[in-house]
Amino acid sequence: MLNNRETGKLGEKIAREDLLKKGYSILETNYSTRYGEIDIIAVEGRVVVFVEVKTRRGINFGYPREAVNRHKQQKIKNMAEVYILRKKLRDINMRFDVIEVFLDDNNDAKSVTILKNAFE
Question: Which of 47, 73, 92, 115 would disulfide-bridge 98, Cβ 3.0–4.6 Å?
Answer without folding.
Answer: 115
